[in-house]
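Lab notebook page, bench 4
Experiment: in silico fold of construct C2
Operator: M.H.
Input chain length: 183 residues
Purpose: comparison with the prior construct
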Amino acid sequence: MDNEITVEVNISYEELDKLLKEKGFKIVDEYTVNDTYMLDNRIDTSNLSNREIIAKCILVRDISPYHKYLTYKYKEYNQNGDIVNQMKINCEVNDINKAIEFMEAINYKKLFNLKDDLVIYSNDLIELAVQLVDNHVYIEVEAKYKDKVYTIDEMKNILDSYNLPYDKSNYFVKKAEIKMEEI
């Protein structure tokens, strides 16, 4: 189980960076995730929602400068659309272009690309992944930090305790669905 929460921030990255540093966070890492969402050509998407289409995708994932993967994500949702359980399976690859070529050879097509620039902030309690995607700023909190595993409610409460300006009506922002709506 790889639970996480993701919220959309209501201020610019520069303002958020200043605010996080004032609250004792330090930048511990920076990297870029380039995801190519690939879908089996044989799937009839005409009667599927964006969420159902994304659920059938395999990602060709370049986490620069660290790893390259084929990634499958599985998510369970409650009736409100909140993610209640999720996991992912990664298969490491050596070459992103060859991975895409392989997927195309087995009848997958490129659906869209999602570029995510991440700045990782940490303090003694929690790690926050600030994500810059297109014109949006998000904060993601993962359940595992050091030797602690947080529940979804604990992650929400910790994030809320910092009084950061973000949309508190949605703790499960789905960036890929937002991207699908734009294409």
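Observations: The chain has five helices and ten strands. The chain has one domain: 4-182.
Next step: discuss at group meeting.
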